[in-house]
Design a protein that fits this description.
Elements lengths: L1 E6 L8 H15 L3 E7 L9 E2 L2 E6 L1 E4 L2 E7 L4 H9 L3 E5 L5 H7 L12 E5 L3 H4 L9 H12 L4 E4 L2 H9 L5 E3 L16 H7 L8 E5 L12 H5 L5 E5 L5 H7 L5 E5 L3 H9 L3 E4 L8 H8 L4 E4 L13 E4 L2 H13 L1 H16 L3 H19 L14 H20 L2
Parallel strand pairs: 1-2, 1-7, 2-4, 7-8, 8-9, 9-10, 11-12, 11-14, 12-13, 14-15, 15-16
Antiparallel strand pairs: 3-4, 5-6
Length: 413
């Protein structure tokens, strides 16, 4: 199968979406499929033109003002020739924003778009919830309206957790299916524990209890909620692994507290960091799944996470604790730090749970969704008839659609 993947974020950026897409491309290639990636070019490491045998077509991008690490790109007319040359069986777009508009134009809809191709749209970011952290909550109804238009063009919509599947369905998004996340259990393993890494993360206090958070340092991650936990546990220390636009705010928030801002860690260093800590704390209430939770569990850590989003689907059957209030979080973390046997037993259960969530299994599920979408798109549905006496609202919408399509065709002939 040949898949053209459109994403607004890819290597060298580091986040959960990039991890998901990189592992997906890697396993698709290992299973014998061809992948072409369209993504913004540039970033910290400059242009990247290939990943795991998949060609990357970098589109000129610019940093987003509210989140400088995110680069946004407009579609280009040259994309049509590149897609035709590749001859994909389908298009897959992750969280369509600007670049993803091209995928929506070239595929999906009743007739398969301009190139008559199936379209899958995957939902990775709870954007409506993010708006409230940036003072833009009043835009939420309008964002859902835009998302309905975009997602309902898809042949299939992919969600990484049942919670997000239900949320999209409740907001009128159709044809939603589950695409679970995965974890590299060979890399993220308790055997990666390192005395040197623990000393580094505790500022040479390795005997101190060590909490850890891994992920973007951004407002929507609610990292400030860890402060009362740390204050309630004398002697405990915290490692924040990651970076982002909220770092300076957090440095002021945790000033004069035993907190290590470790920055981004990759590969073996990241695996060692997980395994060298005692308890993973996940305060975010906007996670569509929470891949870092699976990575922590695979590393043998008990997880104390917010009861929100996709996190409750991962923390179950003795693999950790969920919390709604600061008091619940403090009690849960304290119980693990005060009882090494409980911490060890929970870590073993967490590791066993993570072992059932391989990236290969997740990719096999995705391929089945690809096959379903191809079969669905070959069936031309009967369109809805126009009203016998169309009113002003119907005519206005029709004009708006025609105007939008005309503008897109000028951009993407």
């Amino acid at each position: 199968m040949r898949i053209a993947l459109f994403t607004e974020t890819f290597v060298p950026k580091i986040d959960g979406i990039v991890t998901t897409l990189c592992e997906t491309v890697r396993h698709l290639r290992n299973l014998g499929h061809e992948v072409l990636v369209f993504a913004p070019e540039g970033g910290p490491a400059g242009g990247v033109t290939e990943f795991e045998g998949a060609r990357i077509i970098g589109m000129k991008g610019h940093s987003f003002a509210l989140y400088p690490e995110l680069r946004l790109s407009l579609p280009r007319a040259s994309m049509r020739a590149q897609i035709r040359e590749f001859q994909p069986d389908l298009l897959h777009v992750a969280d369509p924003a600007l670049l993803g508009i091209a995928a929506l134009y070239y595929s999906g809809g009743a007739n398969g778009g301009a190139l008559r191709l199936p379209l899958l749209v995957s939902y990775h970011t709870d954007l409506p919830a993010y708006l409230h952290y940036y003072g833009l909550g009043m835009l939420e109804p309008h964002i859902w309206r835009i998302m309905r238009v975009r997602h309902n063009r898809a042949t299939l919509n992919l969600c990484t957790s049942a919670a997000m599947l239900e949320q999209l369905s409740q907001h009128g998004i159709e044809r939603v299916v589950l695409w679970p996340g995965g974890v590299d259990t060979a890399r993220f393993h308790p055997c990666r524990r390192s005395d040197a890494m623990r000393s580094r993360l505790t500022h040479n206090n390795p005997e101190s209890p060590l909490l850890v958070y891994v992920g973007r340092l951004s407002a929507e991650k609610d990292i400030e909620r860890i402060k009362p936990i740390l204050q309630a546990l004398p002697g405990a220390r915290l490692a924040l692994i990651g970076d982002g636009p909220h770092r300076k705010v957090l440095e002021r928030h945790f000033a004069n507290m035993p907190v290590c801002f470790a920055g981004f860690l990759r590969g073996e260093e990241l695996a060692a960091a997980y395994a060298s800590c005692d308890v993973f704390v996940m305060p975010s209430r906007t996670e569509t799944l929470g891949l870092v939770v699976l990575e922590a569990m695979s590393s043998g850590l008990p997880v104390v996470g917010a009861r929100a989003g996709g996190i409750p689907e991962l923390i179950q059957d003795g693999t950790g604790c969920l919390f709604d209030s600061d008091g619940e979080a403090i009690d849960a973390v304290r119980s693990y730090l005060n009882c090494p046997k409980k911490r060890e037993a929970t870590g073993i259960a967490a590791r066993a749970f993570a072992a059932d969530h391989s990236w290969r299994a997740a990719t096999v599920t995705l391929i089945e969704h690809y096959k379903t979408a191809c079969a669905m798109q070959n069936v031309s549905p009967v369109g809805m008839p126009a009203p016998v006496h169309p009113g002003f609202r119907f005519r206005a919408r029709k004009l708006a659609r025609r105007t939008t399509i005309y503008a897109i065709r000028k951009l993407l002939p």
